[in-house]
Amino acid sequence: MKERIKFITATVLYGTIGLFLRYVELPSEAVALYRGILGALTLWVFRLLRKERPDAGAIRNNLLWLLLSGVGLGLNWIFLFAAYVNTTVAIASLCNYMAPILVICLTPLVLKEKLDLRKIPCILAALVGIVLVSGVIDGGIVGPSGVVFGLLGACCFVGIVFCNRKLHDISPFDRALVQLAVSALTVLPYVLIKNKKLPLPGDLKSGLIVLMLGVLQTGVAYCLYFSGMANLPLQSVAILGYIEPVVSVLCSVLFLKEPLGWYGWIGAVLILAAAVISEIIPPKNPPKEAEK
Predict the structure, then answer these.
(1) Domain limits of the chain?
(2) Rounded average pLDDT over 167-186
(3) pTM score, two decimals?
(4) In principle, which of 77, 83, 129, 172 could form an S-S bond with 267, CB 3.0–4.6 Å?
């Protein structure tokens, strides 16, 4: 139960990011930069307090895929945060959570694994859901650029998933530490080119929110996430992870008073149900346990 509470707390913290981002007087890409820096520093301090040192050998052996996944994480944040700014938090979050469906579609091409035909209805349901959420049926897309940014963020997240499949013999904390640091380095040139200089929070409220997003909703959330998932079944981890978009949608509707509409709610249910069901479907030919 303790591990489950940790994991759920982490997903709830992730789900509130879009809400707080609306109150920051700072470009979204700058927030992503500070989030990466503060998150990496928080994880580093956490490891020091536990008297643990990063495994340099494991990091070196997985360096290429760590670097690529870190770049993907940085790009995911750039697109997702831009989506939060250019459309509703609910739509941005749901577009970003098309990633699991994209993974199912691309796995046969990238990993040469056969597509499970039982998951095709999930793919179709998610596609219908994203059309409904976007607002096309209601007569116009709510923030079309935000929808595009959200889907681009999902594509970047797919890249992270495939890179993580290549990692081996490395702890989740070492992986997260390197990925967060690389994500910050990825975002930095974009921030400097777009803004000509490094933007700083313009007021105390913005500064405190950025600090909270980096330390609490990134560093602490990552610690809770990995500590919790260590002793949870993989299926529970996959399903509980969808608490995040649910929290994002609720924050959008209840606190920001952003419209979603009946079509949007139906689309949200379709996307989340498709993603969850695709995780529940057991493999047709489960791998045999390795001999000890």
Answers:
(1) 2-280
(2) 94
(3) 0.88
(4) 129
